[in-house]
Amino acid sequence: MIDLNKNNIPDSKRFNAKESNANKFLCIVLACITVFISVVCVAVNSRNKTLLANQTLAAAGQANVSESINISASEATTAPATTQKAPSIIKITTEPSTQAQSTTGTTDASIIKIEGNSANASVGTPGTISNPTIITIDESNWQLTLVNSGYRIPDSYSPDLVYVCGSGERLDRKIASHYEEMYRAAAADGVTLTPCSGYRSYETQERNYNRKIEFFEGQGYSREEAKVKAATIIMPPGSSEHNLGYAMDIVCVEEWFEDTAEFRWLQENAADYGFILRYPKDKQDITKVIYEPWHWRYVGVENAKAIKSSGLVLEEYLGVA
């Protein structure tokens, strides 16, 4: 006869149930311990890997520093004393010329006078794209300031700018009123000389020029060849009349502009307001810039009329072609 408890469950079965519950509890405890140990192992392993990686990077960095020091020391002992020629800084002024030959005879042109202690400080010998002559502006005759791939203003140059004709384009204050006067005169004749591109900062010019260099390098030109090719389209920073605030691209920057009424009006009348076509089609060998019928530069009324009648470009007019 089997004894029953008050719940009528045999004692042997109750004992088995208790043993089963104890086993389950033990399994849970062991499982938790196993998970904890696994987590600790993973954490320790990850820390060891991080320490090893940091030690490797530190060693590599130390090696790079040592290599840099060694290279610098090597260059210091093997490089020539003059590895790169610094840009020349000179002053360019202008003075009346007694004679200036042209296709139509003698004009009242001006020649350039250069002062300084540079090898480039002589008439007809500007700097180069890689080694430009840095100029300062003669405020007494600023209208004839010459900038090109050989003569550049410093990157610190900052003109006094104003917006023109209600547009978002700016010019040097000394020139803005002359452009607006020309704009109004053209409008009275039914022609709109829309300001397209006036002043550009040194940084913008540099960015545009570098992009053009990269374009020509992509065409297979060497770096130096690409610089020269790029400069015929986008002047190096400091070499552009846009950096001076002395020039305006009018209506557009496309060669078809020469077939418009606006271009014909400018050819006929721009000199009366002091502006010249800076980069003519037949003078590219002198200006070293592509034909730009849209680019008009202020030089003053007297100079503009003399340049127009002579058929010269600014470099020729100043005697530095």
Task: Give a verbal description of the structure.
The protein has 321 residues and is α+β, with helices and mostly antiparallel strands. 44% of the residues lie in helices and 12% in strands. The protein has two domains: 81 residues; 230 residues, Muramoyl-pentapeptide Carboxypeptidase, domain 2 (2-Layer Sandwich). The chain is built from nine helices and eleven strands. The radius of gyration is 39 Å and the shape is elongated. The N terminus is likely disordered.
Key terms:
disordered N terminus, alpha+beta, 2 domains, Muramoyl-pentapeptide Carboxypeptidase, domain 2, 3-stranded parallel β-sheet, 321 residues
Could you outline the blueprint of secondary structure elements for this entry?
Layout: H1 11-78, E1 88-89, E2 91-96, E3 110-115, E4 133-134, E5 151-152, E6 161-163, E7 170-172, H2 173-188, E8 195-197, H3 202-218, H4 223-231, H5 241-244, E9 247-250, H6 261-269, E10 275-277, H7 284-287, E11 295-298, H8 301-310, H9 314-317
Parallel strand pairs: 1-4, 4-5
Antiparallel strand pairs: 2-3, 6-7, 8-9, 9-11, 10-11
Cα distance spanning the termini: 132 Å
In which range does the helix fraction lie?
Answer: 40-55%
The top-level CATH class of the largest domain is Alpha Beta
Low-confidence runs: 1-6, 49-124
Query: How many discrete domains?
Result: 2
Count helical runs: 9
Predict the CATH topology of the largest domain. Answer: Muramoyl-pentapeptide Carboxypeptidase, domain 2
| Shape label | elongated
Q: Which CATH-level-2 architecture of the largest domain?
A: 2-Layer Sandwich
Oligomeric state of the chains in view? single chain
